[in-house]
Design goal:
This protein is of the alpha+beta class and 349 residues long. It has helices at 9-27, 32-47, 74-77, 86-92, 111-117, 149-192, 198-213, 240-243, 252-258, 277-283, 315-345, and strands at 51-57, 64-70, 97-99, 121-129, 132-141, 217-223, 230-236, 263-265, 287-295, 298-307. The longest helix has 44 residues, at 149-192.
């Protein structure tokens, strides 16, 4: 800023050394949550600030979610959403923002909370991920601070390094998840083809998937030939009252299932594809993924995966669920055919 002394050569050397140390630390770790915690811990050291937070946009690209923080109380962190804060909106537009007085600046959404926490100044930098702004890095001080131009540029550079580290960690986590799904697919496949008992096949799927995919619950419904309606055949992780809430045949989700299409419902308590919003909320269900169980292009049932938190199921998640449902459908049909053959072969009394 004009009129302010420029950063000394010695200070620039210190910043460069710290920047290199932090960059090395955050890019050498491939665990997503550990990367974020490390960033929140290490970045404040570079600019000598008291606290830091990292918020990333969720899969919808509309809501910022707090992922990591250091130096702040739980009360301050829980003050409310910051998506509409002017400083945040400017940062999400790609512009670093420095605020001298957080307690009175109109760009701060919760000035009273800032004053109570003792926050004096803020520096907000956008985090670019794969060419788009994917979140924000906020640095906070408890003494008044006018950030120099070099400090703002440095914060922006650190945020860019954060974006690279975050993307690398996400790629690694996705690859690790895919490997886990492949192993689970082999295990489930081996298990379901080793039995001709339909109930055993259904139990294997509904109990194994929550473990593999970190789910709250899982259900399988099959179409009854006599009625053409979906009937619950197996369930895991849900209360009896929820399971008895009513039929699903009139849900919009069921229409797509009959067409052979998966349905992702990230906000299950309000999603238009479901009709039991009150019961879903009371059960503590956040999101639902429903996929068809098919045999030779015909839907014979429905596999539903439920989470306790709001989750935006990835393409990898959906494809894995579809693969399990397909394998399960073949095993179920084979078991049914085997039972019919055995009954036909049994001598009449």
């Amino acid at each position: 800023m004009e009129g302010e002394p420029s950063m000394t050569v010695e200070k620039e050397k210190d910043y460069l050394r710290l920047l290199l140390d932090v960059t090395k630390a955050i890019t050498s770790n491939l665990n997503f949550e550990e990367v974020l915690d490390l960033i929140a811990e290490k970045v404040p050291q570079v600019l000598s600030v008291d606290a830091a937070t990292i918020r990333l946009l969720d899969a919808s690209g509309k809501k910022l979610v707090l992922h990591a923080a250091s130096g702040l109380s739980d009360e301050y962190l829980g003050r409310g959403p910051v998506d509409a804060e002017k400083s945040v909106l400017e940062a999400l537009a790609g512009h670093p923002i420095a605020i001298h007085d957080a307690g009175s600046d109109p760009r701060v959404q919760y000035p009273e909370a800032a004053r109570k926490e003792g926050i004096q100044s803020l520096l907000v930098a956008p985090i670019p991920i794969r060419g788009k702004i994917g979140g924000i890095l906020r640095l906070l001080t408890k003494t008044p601070r006018t950030f120099e131009r070099q400090e703002i540029d440095l914060a922006a550079g650190l945020a860019e390094q954060c974006g690279i580290a975050i993307e690398n960690a996400r790629i690694y986590e996705a690859q690790k998840r895919q490997l886990g799904y492949f192993k689970a697919m082999c295990e489930i496949g081996k298990a379901v083809i080793s039995t001709y008992e339909v109930d055993r096949i259904l139990e294997l799927i509904t109990t194994r998937l929550p473990e593999v995919m970190n789910l709250k619950a899982c259900t399988i419904r099959l179409i009854e030939p006599s009625s053409g309606k979906f009937e619950l055949k197996a369930a895991y992780g849900l209360s009896r009252s929820y399971l008895e809430r009513g039929p699903l045949d009139d849900e919009l989700a069921t229409y797509y299932i009959l067409e052979g299409e998966p349905v992702v419902m990230p906000y299950a308590t309000i999603d238009m594809h479901t009709i039991y919003h009150k019961e879903t909320s009371e059960e503590g269900v956040g999101s639902i993924l429903a996929v068809p169980i098919m045999v030779q292009d015909e839907t014979i049932g429905m596999l539903r995966l439920l989470t306790s938190e709001v989750r935006f199921f990835s393409e990898t998640d959906v494809n894995f669920a579809l693969a399990v449902a397909e394998q399960g459908g073949i095993a179920i049909q084979n078991a049914i055919n085997f039972q019919k053959i055995r009954e036909m072969s049994s001598p009449s009394v």
